UniProtKB/TrEMBL annotation:
Its EC number is 3.2.2.4. GO terms for molecular function: AMP nucleosidase activity. It comes from the Bacteria. InterPro entries: LOG_fam, LOG_family_nucleotidases. One of its GO terms (cellular component) is cytosol. It is an enzyme of class 3 (hydrolase). This is AMP nucleosidase. The lineage of its organism: Bacteria, Pseudomonadati, Pseudomonadota, Gammaproteobacteria, Nevskiales. It catalyses: AMP + H2O = D-ribose 5-phosphate + adenine.
Length: 244
């Protein structure tokens, strides 16, 4: 019997001992595909997987507004930027707000959608507005979050639950500590976010610095969000070539 090569040994690759290999794959394989497809700049949309069309609070139809904002951004970048500098609509690839953003992007060009999906026992499935070439499937949450932030030049947070809050506070922490460059971070729906998190109280108690409340901004409509993003989004600088 011919011995199995290590990199073809499925039993080993799915073992606890090979976890580091699987984690590395979720870095290297997406990196290769992003480079191959020319995806360098994204606008990341975050929000609940449970919000469906027509279901909203505080006078908002969150799904419709996320779709409208993504559509305007996709149309704007297609008209304004060369292909290498375009901004892609990036989400976790699932239903709810993620689907809404990709629905809006697809109205302009489905090739501008990037979906970073993850295997979960419920709720999560790849929405139909992401083409196969720019659809990714993750096992590890932290690798998925890494890529959601790594290419992002702007981030919009619609109302959401534990996952959305996790993503928001991780991005704020990375920005606060200088681990990522400052990008426009928008909290969509002031009434929702101020009723959920008392940021001013954190500052008043000395738990964050007063200037930390300037890491993000509240927006309440598509026009306001689009005005900020279209004014402030900047593509990643060109990748410098390695010295021979």
């Amino acid at each position: 019997m011919q011995p199995v090569k290590a990199y073809k040994n499925q039993e080993f690759l799915m073992s606890e001992e090979a976890r580091a290999v699987r984690i590395l794959c979720e870095y290297v394989e997406p990196d290769h595909r992003f480079r191959r497809t020319g995806v360098r700049n994204t606008v990341a949309f975050f929000g609940s997987a449970r919000l469906q069309p027509g279901i909203g609070t505080d006078g908002h139809d969150w799904y419709a507004e996320a779709a409208a904002l993504a559509e305007r951004l996709a149309d704007w970048t297609r008209e304004r930027h060369p292909v290498a500098e375009r901004f892609y609509v990036c989400t976790g690839g699932g239903p709810g707000i993620m689907e809404a953003a990709h629905c809006g992007g697809a109205r302009v060009d489905p090739a501008l959608n990037v979906g970073l999906n993850i295997s979960l026992p419920f709720e999560q499935h790849l929405n139909p507005y992401v083409e196969d070439e720019r659809a990714y499937q993750f096992h590890y949450f932290f690798m998925r979050k890494f890529w959601l932030v790594k290419l992002a030049r702007g981030a919009i947070f619609f109302p959401g639950g534990f996952g959305t809050l996790d993503e928001l506070f991780e991005l704020l922490t990375l920005t606060q500590t200088g681990k990522v460059v400052n990008i426009p971070i928008l909290l969509y729906g002031r009434e929702f976010w101020e009723g959920l998190v008392d940021f001013e109280r954190l500052a008043a108690r000395g738990l964050i610095s007063p200037e930390d409340t300037g890491l993000f901004r509240f927006v309440d409509d598509v026009d306001g969000a689009f005005a900020i993003l279209s004014r402030e989004l900047q593509p990643h600088p060109p990748v410098s070539k390695a010295v021979a």
